[in-house]
Design a protein that fits this description.
54% of the residues lie in helices and 12% in strands. The chain has 326 residues and is an alpha/beta fold. The protein folds into three domains: 10-92, Multidrug-efflux Transporter Regulator, Chain: A, Domain 2 (Orthogonal Bundle), CATH 1.10.1660.10; 95-192, Methionine synthase domain (Methyltransferase, Methionine Synthase (B12-binding Domains), Chain A, domain 1, Orthogonal Bundle); 199-324, Rossmann fold (3-Layer(aba) Sandwich), CATH 3.40.50.280. The strands form three sheets. A five-stranded parallel beta sheet has the order 7-6-8-9-10, sandwiched between helices. Strands 1-3-2 form a three-stranded antiparallel beta sheet. A two-stranded antiparallel sheet has the order 4-5. The radius of gyration is 23 Å and the shape is elongated.
Length: 326
């Protein structure tokens, strides 16, 4: 990554820089923390002060991000490099940030992505959620989740924004950039938000009942709530058992609720051999006619009489065609 140097008097406040570049103040602070740019001088009061020479540099960075480049790849690059990059990729326009795709007929092989969120915008949204997480700012996180949900819709929110955010959280924790408390904060915020989306839908639903849960020893709940959103949107009644559920409890819940499908979320941290053994035992408890559906990064594929989906849209298609219409 290129470097830059500040020349001239540092006369601008961070607010003035934000106004001149249309880059939010919190984004500027995040870039400084993560990438070392823009690096301010400090006034005697401790406030950030910037040279006016940073303005055109930041505008080029903003334009590069608008054209689909990730902040990590362009923030701090030299002006010369950014100009070359912009000349090469000039065809990407901000007007294409969010576009509606043509409808796709739903069948067992269909994949209808709906709205497409441009990579530059998706990266900015994920970065804003990371910033709220680092600051433990529940109000900011909640506001951003709600506004984004209503702006792009449920499936783009889940597939194109929330999934990358969860990967970023996991990577940041692995690299030591965040602490356990940050991961817990984000998880709590997401569980609450997603639950508030699917529970009212499930309560009004009149479709078939489905049990949503995780297998014994599985403590990751976000994927489970994501699955619950998808099936509740399709009119299914969700029997939500939560995490770390004994196999016999799952079987009892299936029988007592009249559900004939168990949707099991399996995180990437799970042991696939253990999961395969648990699913086999659950099949014995449920009998041959019950539907068992696995999803998530740790779900083993190739199990007999078990449906497996690694994508929420494909799960949605299957529920509509193979389950609701059955």
């Amino acid at each position: 990554m290129g470097t830059h140097s500040e020349k001239g008097g540092a006369t601008l406040s961070i607010g003035a820089v934000s106004k001149a570049t249309e880059i939010p103040v919190e984004t500027l602070r995040t870039w400084e923390r993560r990438y070392g740019f823009p690096k301010p001088q400090r006034a005697a009061s401790g406030h950030r002060r910037y040279s006016s020479s940073v303005i055109p540099h930041l505008r080029l960075i903003s334009a590069a991000i608008d054209q689909g480049n990730r902040p990590v790849n362009v923030v701090g690059e030299s002006i010369e490099t950014l100009k070359v990059l912009l000349d090469v990729s000039r065809a990407a326009e901000m007007a294409d940030v969010i576009t509606t795709q043509s409808p796709v007929h739903v069948d067992s092989d269909a994949y209808d992505p709906g709205l497409q969120v441009a990579p530059a915008i998706a990266a900015q949204i994920v970065e804003s959620w990371m910033d709220a997480t680092m600051r433990l700012d529940a109000d900011l996180m909640r506001t951003s989740l709600e506004s984004t949900w209503y702006r792009v819709g449920a499936m783009p929110f889940l597939n194109q924004l929330l999934s990358p955010f969860l990967r970023e959280i996991g990577q940041a924790w692995f690299e030591g950039r965040i602490a356990v408390l940050h991961e817990q904060f984000a998880s709590n915020q997401l569980r609450k938000f997603l639950s508030e989306q699917w529970r009212p839908l499930s309560e009004r639903a009149r479709g078939p009942r489905v049990v949503c849960t995780t297998l014994p020893g599985e403590y990751h709940a976000i994927g489970l709530h994501m699955v619950s959103v998808v099936v509740a949107m399709l009119g299914c009644q969700v029997v939500f058992l939560g995490i770390d559920t004994p196999l016999r409890t799952i079987a009892d819940a299936m029988r007592q609720s009249g559900a004939d499908a168990a949707l099991l979320s399996v995180s990437a941290a799970a042991n696939t051999a253990t999961v395969a053994g648990q699913v086999s035992e659950l099949r014995g408890l449920l009998g041959p006619d019950a539907r068992i559906v696995l999803g998530g990064g740790g779900a083993p594929g190739g199990l007999d009489d078990v449906m497996y989906f690694n994508d929420l849209q494909l799960l949605s298609n299957w529920v509509q065609v193979e389950y609701l219409s059955a």
